[in-house]
Design a protein that fits this description.
- With 567 residues, the protein is mainly beta.
- 11% of the residues lie in helices and 34% in strands.
- Helix 2 crosses helix 3.
- The protein has two domains: 310 residues, Porin (Beta Barrel), CATH 2.40.160; 136 residues, 60s Ribosomal Protein L30, Chain: A.
- The two termini are 65 Å apart.
Length: 567
Amino acid sequence: MRSRTSLVTLLVVLATPLVARAQVRPNAIPSSNGDGIDTHLFRPALDSRGLISVNGVDVLPAGRISLGLTMDYGRNILRVPDVGQESTALVRDSFTGTFHFNYGIADRAVVGISAPAQLMSGDPQPGVAGWGPQALDSQSIGHVALHGKVKLTRAGSGLGVAVAAQVGVPVSDAPRSAGGDPSLWYWPMMIFEKRFGSEDQLRIAANVGYRGHAASSTTLALRDGTVRDGSRVTYGAGASLRVADPLDVVVETYGTYLLSDSDAAVKPSNEALGGIKLFVDKSSHLLIGAGPRVTTGFEAADFRGVIGFVFEPPAFDSDGDGVPDGEDSCPNVPGVRSTDPAQNGCPLDSDLDGIPDSEDACPYVKGPRTNNPRTNGCPPIPEAPPPPAFDLDNDGIPNVEDACPTLAGPRHPDPLRNGCPDIVFGPTTMTVFDKIMFKTGSAEILPESNPILDKVAKALNEHPELVLLEVAGHADERGSEKLNLSLTQARVDSVMIALVARNVDRSRLRARGYGYYCPRDDGHDEQAWSKNRRVEFLILKTTTGNTGSPLGCENATAHGVPPLPVP
């Protein structure tokens, strides 16, 4: 809260002298030469999810805000013929500080407001028609603008697309000093973005739009031709590369094309920037950039420098579980994220009996709370008829505690595995309790998984009635679709090769990777990701025929990864 107050105070302090001095000096463009013209080619991205001037597809989370100040400097704008004057540019120095505020809506859109404070200066230009002979000395708030952006598709899964629009109105005489559009203006645009890398390290974005306003008759004779004010086509493209955890390197180009009867050389205004974004939090960052003009257009500056800071206050999270209080149904008790609003941020309770899984001896079956850790959350054991035997499989674990009461197995701290052998055969699945581990981002099986593979191979060779099994691979949601799909296929191929090397007949096995399309847990935390990274063994055929084992999932089929037919 203190940081937010300090930033607002800074903006007020900076803006006050500009407003107080506005309209003190005579206008550079006489009233006989139309309503004025704008020379501000650089305009910062609408929100904190952009590059520097090029906008990105993402938006602020619902209910979150961001505040920012982006300052840019342009050297030598509106270049004129050299007839011996001190400077050959009507605008020698142009400083602009753009204040902006944004608010996120429904994780899908953002709305905001911006206002640029401008300081523009130049030397006397008595020989330039349509420009006052006095030196340019303008301080003003150029305009106030409202904007909005709506994300249509995610940039992390294919091509991201968003639409945005900005509407502004001049609030001073800035247009008559070449510092603003001469009337209410509007700026719709399309935004495209594509990301690359396992953690979206590389971003490439492009924008195209149209900035229109009422016609102005202002005309200036410049070095490269005559310019007459008009509406513009806008464009921009850039790339951002994460070179370290808090640091992005950014390159971009942006420009406008003037739609008027101006001379051809002054219509396209284009600049290029290179810079960095240093993140001090997840989204709050400092940005620095600089670059030259690319074309001779009237808005392009010989040199452009940019520095700015965007502050996005972190969401308040009383219990520190990663779920903001505004979304947390249990704000004072650490929990996990859930798609169910009533359970979001609460301790995991799979059977919804009011007892967290960490305390529930039967986490998947509803039951009352008891003082006995072994029965807490379990349904009451019926008194009659008595069980046929206290310990049916004679493994030393009572039936009430034994997850596999008819199969002998060792005691285990996990209630779902207690009393079960390492491998359990069902009608359509072969359950392997121990996970097969791989090297991160690789299909290489870690050495500690060799004993598991030995047991699987031994179990298959002891059960020749199992004619065909599918080794199915699944990933968690992190990373790109293409990467996860190829990685899960490579991993199950490695498992199948390892089993064949252990004398399992190759004809009894097939492998299929389903990427992250078939999650076991829809959560978005490490607990859910651990469940979703898995290798499964599905029994497809036995000597008695097809088992009808369910393969893949509807989501995988919808994304072009259907299950393979059973021969």
